[in-house]
Design brief:
Shape: elongated
Number of strands: 6
Oligomer: single chain
Largest sheet: 5 strands, mixed, barrel
Strand content: 5-15%
Distance between the termini: 84 Å
Helix content: 55-70%
Strand order of the largest sheet: 2-3-4-6-5
Radius of gyration: 37 Å
Order of helices and strands: HHHHHHHHHHHHHHHHHHHHHHEHEEEEE
């Protein structure tokens, strides 16, 4: 009993002395997280009128903090006069630590009550239209800046237009509206999406201006131009191509060309390729030279279709080695059409082992004919007269010309064994295509694209229309475009990269302007996974 009384009196003695104000020292490391709130609460003492609730909570918080810091100071300097650093902790030291832990918990609770009070007082001040109190509470970083604060500050603009918290909330609020609008768009609710985009545009979102322009493109060309003009003025470079197409729809070629040139001169490889396609139709030599200039720029800027077209131009100008270099680039970037001409160049150079896989993958009549020659003569492959016969036949079907003599010649030489081998290879290809369809989905023909929640296989060239938006455009080899929603950026794709992906159809499309004075429907899909064929 006497020991208990001794420890109790010792505890009271040390706690009392520990809770007296410590020397003028900074907050301990464990309490430093409260330094800003401490400074603001101390600053309230100079304010003329402060809400009673806030003043009381600040007083309580500072009191708790002072006690906890005094204990921390005592603990930190308890052994200053002890020459033995390895001495066992004294009972009074352990008691100090226990009390310090208790005061830290009380400080934490007081801090949370202070935050709750700040938010409550701030909301009341908004309701009572007391601007000075709203401003006062927001000097505490702990006060949550809500939508109510934003709209209240907006009433008193422009004096708050440079306020960091106001601007940060505006940016985040615009982003939320943008994401919700994109969700509406994927669900086919264009009117609700447009409402969101317009509201986000008021919050200085250039991306929202661009998306509002896209929605208007289907039926309201002038409104679409108005919104895309705003978007490009605020830094959305992609809006320039939309303006070019919209003015083309309005039959204003000079204005259309102005925007194509603006994008191309700024280094937009896609715009450069589009200019090439427009100029190359002319019979003028000067115009053809302009077309070639834009084609070369586009290829050098990494646009795969331009790499392929530039290679063709080089081959036409008797520069096969340079053409080969660009065909290789185009092929590596997913342009399957490059297989035939590249294989043909290797064929002409008698590099048959390199030519074979390229010609085999190609779908052109010339490629099939050359493949027939290789099978017939055993060039880079084992002689196979049945395969040669089929290649000559396919070349004729694709429009190569009359291959009757070649077919008649190898028809006499083909064997049943060769036929069996060829049929087995065809069955293997059919099984592979079936497996691909099961794994990756069906190809997105129009009927399938319109069917909601269908698993589809998409492959083509990627372009990213905007930063910080939820997906990307995918351009197929046959000229179609799809929009793939990829909110979490799981695909990890870059502009002009070739993609083979599995996606889920939304069943909805966005109607936008095309480069031929008309419009096109861009169907929307959800990204699911990569599918390597």
């Amino acid at each position: 009993m006497s020991l208990y009384l001794f420890l109790t009196s010792l505890f009271i003695s040390f706690v009392f002395t520990a809770c007296t104000p410590a020397p003028d020292v900074p907050l301990s490391a464990e309490l430093s997280q409260y330094a800003e709130a401490q400074e603001r609460c101390e600053g309230l003492r100079t304010e003329i009128a402060v809400a009673d609730a806030l003043e009381n909570e600040c007083h309580l918080f500072l009191n708790r903090l002072e006690k906890a810091n005094a204990l921390d100071y005592k603990i930190a300097h308890f052994n200053d006069d002890n020459p033995d650093p390895n001495a066992k902790p004294k009972p009074e030291y352990i008691l100090l630590q226990t009390e310090s832990h208790r005061q830290h918990l009380k400080s934490s609770l007081a801090y949370q009550k202070l935050i709750d009070t700040l938010n409550r007082v701030s909301a009341t001040a908004i309701a009572n239209d007391e601007l000075s109190d709203v401003e006062l509470t927001l000097t505490f970083s702990e006060t949550e800046f809500t939508k109510q604060h934003y709209h209240y500050y907006k009433r008193y603009a422009p004096q708050f237009d440079t306020d960091p918290r106001y601007l940060a909330f505006e940016k985040q609020y615009a982003k939320e509206l943008l994401e919700e609008g994109l969700l509406f768009l994927s669900q086919g609710e264009k009117h609700r999406a447009l409402k969101n985009f317009k509201e986000a545009a008021v919050l200085h979102s250039a991306q929202a201006e661009y998306l509002a322009g896209i929605i208007y493109e289907a039926k309201h060309v002038d409104k679409a131009i108005e919104w895309h003009t705003k978007a490009q003025a605020h830094g959305i470079k992609e809006a320039r191509l939309h303006l070019a197409r919209l003015y083309k729809r309005k039959m204003e070629p000079k204005e259309s060309l102005k925007w194509y040139l603006a994008a191309a001169e700024d280094g937009d490889a896609y715009a450069q390729f589009l200019l090439y396609q427009q100029y190359i139709t002319s019979t003028s030599q000067k115009t053809e030279e302009i077309a070639d200039k834009w084609l070369q720029h586009s290829a050098e800027n990494g646009f795969p279709p331009a790499e392929y077209a530039y290679a063709e131009r080089l081959e036409q100008n008797n520069k096969p080695e340079e053409a080969k270099t660009w065909l290789l680039r185009a092929k590596d970037h997913g342009i399957t059409a490059a297989n035939g001409p590249l294989g043909g160049l290797y064929f002409e150079d008698k590099e048959y082992e390199k030519a074979y896989p390229l010609l085999d993958a190609a779908k052109s009549a010339t490629a099939k004919y050359r493949l027939g020659v290789m099978f017939e003569r055993g060039l880079g492959v084992e002689p196979d007269y049945y395969s040669a016969y089929q290649c000559y036949k396919e070349a004729a079907r694709l429009g190569y010309g009359d291959t009757g003599k070649e077919m008649a010649r190898v028809d006499k030489l083909k064997t049943q064994r060769e036929q069996a081998y060829y049929e087995a290879a065809k069955r293997k290809k059919r099984l592979y295509k079936k497996e691909l369809a099961e794994r990756c989905g069906e190809r997105a023909i129009k009927r399938i694209a319109r069917t909601k929640d269908t698993k589809v296989y998409l492959n083509g060239l990627v372009s990213l229309p905007l930063e910080d938006v939820n997906g990307f455009l995918l351009h197929t080899d046959d000229g179609r475009q799809f929009y793939v929603i990829d909110t979490d950026r799981q695909a990890g794709l870059k502009p002009f990269q070739h993609a083979d992906i599995t996606a889920i159809s939304t069943g909805n499309a966005i109607t936008v302007s095309s480069d031929n004075r008309g419009t096109r429907d861009v169907y929307q899909f959800y990204f699911q996974q990569h599918c390597q064929p």
